């Protein structure tokens, strides 16, 4: 320790890390990560303190970027320090003293971390060694080398230790060294992160994999692992990769078996879990949370934390093959069966709200092989169902050639999206991934091939060939911006692929056949299962850094078994009151409070712990959502199959529900949670309003060109520091006291059209108020630059979704300029509108920009060549006046395909890029004021609409039905002398039931429903049309029948492995 202390005190950072690397690596565990982070952060701060920006950038990119994958927000904040003249302007670093004192403080912290790190135990003091210890080690090494000789002599003559020993061949030739000896296979040297080339049969790689990935691939060394069965493993994380291992080197002398240092480390972390060998279809899952009462070092936990109490059973009609929970909507459970049925259950009401049967949408366009197989047997089993990460798409992999993709828009609004004939024979697995920030679908099949598809077009992007047996599973993942896919085959082979056409980078034998590999929810702990050719079953944790998940569950022996993930001993097991299959399919919810388990009577049981039971009771006490009653009707879907009653309710219930539904009216402050944000500055109307992308702050732009920023602090009442109506935030200003104020030279404030846009990392805001466009630093409020003086003035701003340096600027003269901030030039100018631009929205999946103008025209532009693709004017019914008298705003749904168009007279939903109008809602004639603004909720399931009479309406996005009206009296004090109403409305980026209002009196209000309610009202039944206070342009018996049909057409959802996706992307509430 003394040597370490001296090097830290002297700032010899390279030597400090070199010395530490002999004991630990940055990703070994959380203590090691913290140690390396503190050292590199200090090196970074010292460079900034010396005004050496170039060195600071170099440290940021080479040393600190590795931590971005674990705490992206912290890395962003560290990056922003580069923009400060003195990093002490940052509140958290305001007490940073001189270099010497800072090193002393850091050294004290490092000592604590080292002492707490289990990897340093028994290494802080030099051990007591026997005099013969060195001799013993040398002898063991020589004995090991002697075993590797092809022709070992009885009495070898070893003359030196400077080269590896080998006995001479009978003809005098020398045997190869142990490093290259075929017996060793591709054994890597005992170094930290060896290059990929050491594995032998790898293809040349065009790009270097990150060190962490390289390290995973370099340390394989399993032993035979008893227990556990083959079959799909499900560990929650949707797109997570696997690590690979090598077989141990066999020995010729059974009396001698010395492990290398490398294998010894691995064997300590490769742990078998006890499961019987008889079961052939094991389902495994990880409980995703660490409970507050537990510490990382504990080896056992209370079984009360586990969901074990059965609370409901849902009959599926056929054997369950796969389950998944929606990543955003927390009460939707997806189930796929062996008969090809995919069902969606709303657990709050125990209703099956949608069902899809297997059918080929375009049979004539399919291969002769598929058509022939369907002639003999028209059914197919579901192999996998899976949600896209944002829940806007879901995919289904079938046992016959086909993958179906559906778009989902909330409620029961499910539409066919894409049919892909993906493989010859069975499609064994399906996953979503994001190579190059573009959503892709990864499939594998019986034809030994892995394929990557573009979901929007259905085009094939990559084909990976090389397996010699059917590919059983795929596992996409990413590390340090490197995207890759692991695949496993039924012969036990594991391969890794980058998104290119250069072949596999890894080729290994897994411990078992038909192996499946997947990560835990936090991406740090890796498990695999499989059965080898001798029939031995394996459930193994591979060598990885410590994670935050606490429990692992497996379905086995007609039971659900639970393990503490830091202890191989069984924690507990339950039979869920009996009736489970031999190896039940299981699925945790995101919080680990609920567990879905398949049964032998074709049902799914829902188990809960105390927290889950409380959740269920909360849902029971809420108002019945009558929007689901239509699912009791009997209709025919597109393939002429008659659907039977899909929920267990009496026949006259829909009529009763329609009769009892009532619009939720909120008129009193006691009926909701509202908060007016503190502001002691001059009151000026709020022209623009937005939440930061992190959800920690709200930014407003007033009509006097001044920006205001409110930040919520982390405290006991607000543990995550996010915006809430329950805690008062701080009106934030930097220590300099400056304001972010737009240029308004020679501009009449009444004529100016304010606009702003926030960068994805919340570091910069681009803003204009009729004058020049300003770029502000959000930390210091300093103006970084100004450009584009009027005329014409900017009227709308939007950052390109893939490049913060590209901005689309809507202009007062009706043009749109595509501007590159970095090079300070206009790339192109788009013309197609007749009046000023009032809205811009990018779709990163369609690669288009949609613009709207004061002429009520919508235009679609390709972002590849910036050419105009199509345009359409809003339709206004007779007697509603001209549509060109007001602003028109546009916003994309989460699915990046459906478009919300907002006008003072109406709300409309279009499908891009063809602009097919799907739904339209008109302002009721009896309304006392027009629409002032509207926006999607963060999950795109609701639309918040503000009106000039001060009220706010909440519409269900899928039906455009008004379900809740919040009157001005609920959040504004009575003031007859002053007419106050919201001009702008903003939705919280992660809380779907929270929104903020910017008012004409300069106030900003945050509104949320009462905690006991949890949401803004309930949707009206479909039979009631659009509800009591709405007027729908498409109302009538024909649309009612269409909605009813859509309700029953059903919904196909998914989970990649039987259990793999559920933990990372799902949080559900059961009744």
UniProtKB/TrEMBL annotation:
GO BP term (any one): regulation of DNA-templated transcription
Taxonomically, which superkingdom? Eukaryota
- Name the lineage: Eukaryota, Viridiplantae, Streptophyta, Embryophyta, Tracheophyta
Q: What is this protein called in UniProt?
A: CTLH domain-containing protein
UniProt keyword annotations, A-Z: Repeat, Repressor, WD repeat
- Location of the CTLH domain: 1-55
Organism, by scientific name, is Hevea brasiliensis (Para rubber tree)
Query: Pfam families recorded for this chain?
Result: TPR1-like_2nd, WD40, zf_topless
Q: Where are the WD repeats?
A: 420-463, 830-871
